[in-house]
Structure prediction request, 60 residues.
Amino acid sequence: MTVVLVVAVIVGVGAGWLARLDQATWPAAATRAAVAFAATVTLFGVAVTAVTGILTVVLE
Prediction:
């Protein structure tokens, strides 16, 4: 779980930094960073759920 959060934070910071480079305002950059963070955590959750489901079927 810690690795997921570290990766999500890195993605969020990167998205916010790229937004600022694109001349976005601070609130807009923070919003983009938050959306990127949430999307990364969600994507990891979906991947873990899918792998768990596949392994459950295969190992039965």
Q: What stands out?
A: Residues 11 and 37 are 6 Å apart (CA to CA).
